Every structure is written in structure tokens, then in C-alpha cells.
Amino acid sequence: MTKLLILGRSGRMGQALIEAATADSGSEVAKTHDHGENLINAFDGVDAAIDFTVHNFTESVLDAALETNTPLVIGTTGHTDEEKAKIIEASKKLPIVFAANYSIGVNTLFYLTQKAAQILGNDRFDIEVTEMHHKHKIDSPSGTARRLLEILNEETNTSYEDDVAHGRVGNIGPRPPKEIGMHTLRGGDVVGDHTVMFAADGERVELTHKASSRLTFASGAVRASIWLQGRAPGLYDMQDVLGLK
Ligand SMILES: NC(=O)C1=CN([C@@H]2O[C@H](COP(=O)(O)OP(=O)(O)OC[C@H]3O[C@@H](n4cnc5c(N)ncnc54)[C@H](OP(=O)(O)O)[C@@H]3O)[C@@H](O)[C@H]2O)C=CC1
Ligand SMILES: O=C(O)C1=N[C@H](C(=O)O)C[C@H](O)C1
């Protein structure tokens, strides 16, 4: 039985994680933590910690995990490059799963996006990405959309800095051929929708994933925390957990 620390107890994902970890026969919720509580005490005696909180809390979480030698599952999104570098540094000493999305469906979307980009390319096909989330989400584009863009950039020899256009407004002129459009929608209680579109003259391919329950992400993260037990230090993602690599 994997004894878990769930961080962000009162959050949308914190609540879903407590439900998923309680339902999974391989895990139990040993500790929970929320804003203002002692973090080192929370890490004491657990087999893994699951962090779906806010990007600027991650450094404290990494420090506590290193001090107590606790494997980590990080689902938080919106990290700066510096914060990502700290996760990579910590993974030299600890096993860490860090993924923008823990659902099996989205990890399949990552795979299909890579294959579609390899087959269709960006000569004849124009690539656009959309994401929609609930009105409370604080980071944009979503971590999942950022990962989709990374895959598309890798496969089409483009870069996030030079080729990704965030929304379009005004007299924008004709679409630059290699541009990748990125469009964020926010509203209501949408759990998480992502679409990658390949549009050419005469045809269009759309790959879409729609999450309708946060338990989808939570059960994937609990699975990752169990998978981490006995792993060597390193930076892993959900594709590793699912055996898709
Ligand atoms: N990888 C994936 O599969 C998924 C990732 N996410 C990501 O998970 C994160 C959380 O999302 P969600 O649950 O909707 O967010 P919520 O705002 O609902 O929850 C955030 C939680 O973190 C706590 N928290 C915030 N700041 C701190 C801090 N400085 N110290 C300690 N605790 C803190 C909050 O406590 P308080 O309310 O008291 O501030 C709250 O309990 C986001 O980054 C989101 O993008 C979400 C879904 C899936
Ligand atoms: O904040 C959310 O809710 C979600 N965040 C993740 C992201 O930023 O990709 C994953 C999921 O889509 C829900």
C-alpha cells in the first residue's frame, strides 16, 4: 500500500486526488496539506507526494521532498523556465513524474499529434491549437497545450518563440505558412478541452480530447505515484508510467 501525501487539499484537484487515492486499492491517503500548514511535517512518513497546486509553490515542495527523500508526482502547470530547471535539478536526486496531463486520453492525443504532424507536416497543412478550460484557471496556454506545441515544434522544425501566434487581432495579413496558431478559451466549468487542427485546401483533420471529470487526471496521478515506488532518481512523464516509450 503506497502511503500518499496530497498537497492542495482544498483545491479542485486536491479533492479529486483524495477521492482517487482512497478508491485505488494500491494507495492510501496518509497525509494532506494546505496553505499555511507545516510542509516538512506533512512529508514525514509518506511513500510519495502528489502536487497539483500553484507554480510558485513547487520550489518549497521540491525542498521538502529532497529533505525527506520522498518521490514526487507533479501535476501543477504554469511554471517559469527557472522553476522547470529546479524540477530537473531535483530529479537528479529523486524520482519525479512531471506531466502536464495525467489522463490516458490526452497522452494518446500527444502520440496521435506527433504521428499526424509527421504524416501531414506544415507545408500543405496549417496547424492551429485550441484549448478551453473553466473560468478559474490562472495559466495560459494550458500546460497540455504547451506540451502539444512542443511536439508540433519538434516535428515541424519550428519554435515556440518565433512561430507560435497567440490569438490574432487587427490587420493581421495573410497567414505566414509555418505559423502555429494558439487560442485560449475560458468559461464556466469546462474541465479541459484540447484540439489540434491541421487545415489544408480541400480538407481538414481535427484531433480533439475532452475531459469531463477531474478523476481522469487524479487516477492517473495516483497510478504514477504507485509506479514511482523503487524507481531510480530521474525525470519521468506519464508516457513512461503508461509504457508508451
Ligand atoms: N497535470 C494534470 O493532469 C492537471 C494539472 N492541473 C493543474 O493543477 C493545478 C491545480 O489546479 P486546481 O486544483 O484546479 O487549482 P485550485 O486553485 O482549485 O487548487 C490549488 C490548491 O493549491 C493550494 N495552494 C495555492 N497556493 C499555495 C501555496 N503557496 N502553498 C500551499 N498551497 C497552496 C490552494 O490552497 P488555497 O485555496 O488555500 O490557496 C489549493 O488547495 C493547476 O496548476 C492546474 O493547471 C489540473 C488538472 C489536471
Ligand atoms: O487547470 C486545469 O483545470 C487543468 N490543467 C491542466 C493543463 O494546464 O493542461 C490539465 C487539464 O487540462 C486541466
From TrEMBL:
<dbReference type="GO" id="GO:0008839">
    <property type="term" value="F:4-hydroxy-tetrahydrodipicolinate reductase"/>
</dbReference>
<dbReference type="InterPro" id="IPR022663">
    <property type="entry name" value="DapB_C"/>
</dbReference>
<comment type="subunit">
    <text>Homotetramer.</text>
</comment>
<feature type="active site" description="Proton donor/acceptor">
    <location>
        <position position="133"/>
    </location>
</feature>
<dbReference type="InterPro" id="IPR023940">
    <property type="entry name" value="DHDPR_bac"/>
</dbReference>
<feature type="binding site">
    <location>
        <begin position="8"/>
        <end position="13"/>
    </location>
    <ligand>
        <name>NAD(+)</name>
    </ligand>
</feature>
<dbReference type="InterPro" id="IPR036291">
    <property type="entry name" value="NAD(P)-bd_dom_sf"/>
</dbReference>
<feature type="binding site">
    <location>
        <begin position="143"/>
        <end position="144"/>
    </location>
    <ligand>
        <name>(S)-2,3,4,5-tetrahydrodipicolinate</name>
    </ligand>
</feature>
<dbReference type="GO" id="GO:0005829">
    <property type="term" value="C:cytosol"/>
</dbReference>
<dbReference type="InterPro" id="IPR022664">
    <property type="entry name" value="DapB_N_CS"/>
</dbReference>
<keyword id="KW-0028">Amino-acid biosynthesis</keyword>
<keyword id="KW-0520">NAD</keyword>
<feature type="domain" description="Dihydrodipicolinate reductase C-terminal">
    <location>
        <begin position="105"/>
        <end position="242"/>
    </location>
</feature>
<dbReference type="GO" id="GO:0016726">
    <property type="term" value="F:oxidoreductase activity, acting on CH or CH2 groups, NAD or NADP as acceptor"/>
</dbReference>
<dbReference type="Pfam" id="PF05173">
    <property type="entry name" value="DapB_C"/>
</dbReference>
<feature type="active site" description="Proton donor">
    <location>
        <position position="137"/>
    </location>
</feature>
<dbReference type="Pfam" id="PF01113">
    <property type="entry name" value="DapB_N"/>
</dbReference>
<dbReference type="GO" id="GO:0050661">
    <property type="term" value="F:NADP binding"/>
</dbReference>
<keyword id="KW-0220">Diaminopimelate biosynthesis</keyword>
<comment type="similarity">
    <text>Belongs to the DapB family.</text>
</comment>
<feature type="binding site">
    <location>
        <begin position="75"/>
        <end position="77"/>
    </location>
    <ligand>
        <name>NAD(+)</name>
    </ligand>
</feature>
<keyword id="KW-0963">Cytoplasm</keyword>
<comment type="pathway">
    <text>Amino-acid biosynthesis; L-lysine biosynthesis via DAP pathway; (S)-tetrahydrodipicolinate from L-aspartate: step 4/4.</text>
</comment>
<dbReference type="GO" id="GO:0019877">
    <property type="term" value="P:diaminopimelate biosynthetic process"/>
</dbReference>
<dbReference type="GO" id="GO:0009089">
    <property type="term" value="P:lysine biosynthetic process via diaminopimelate"/>
</dbReference>
<keyword id="KW-0560">Oxidoreductase</keyword>
<feature type="domain" description="Dihydrodipicolinate reductase N-terminal">
    <location>
        <begin position="3"/>
        <end position="102"/>
    </location>
</feature>
<dbReference type="GO" id="GO:0051287">
    <property type="term" value="F:NAD binding"/>
</dbReference>
<comment type="function">
    <text>Catalyzes the conversion of 4-hydroxy-tetrahydrodipicolinate (HTPA) to tetrahydrodipicolinate.</text>
</comment>
<feature type="binding site">
    <location>
        <position position="44"/>
    </location>
    <ligand>
        <name>NAD(+)</name>
    </ligand>
</feature>
<dbReference type="InterPro" id="IPR000846">
    <property type="entry name" value="DapB_N"/>
</dbReference>
<feature type="binding site">
    <location>
        <begin position="99"/>
        <end position="102"/>
    </location>
    <ligand>
        <name>NAD(+)</name>
    </ligand>
</feature>
<keyword id="KW-0457">Lysine biosynthesis</keyword>
<keyword id="KW-0521">NADP</keyword>
<feature type="binding site">
    <location>
        <position position="134"/>
    </location>
    <ligand>
        <name>(S)-2,3,4,5-tetrahydrodipicolinate</name>
    </ligand>
</feature>
<protein>
    <recommendedName>
        <fullName>4-hydroxy-tetrahydrodipicolinate reductase</fullName>
        <ecNumber>1.17.1.8</ecNumber>
    </recommendedName>
</protein>
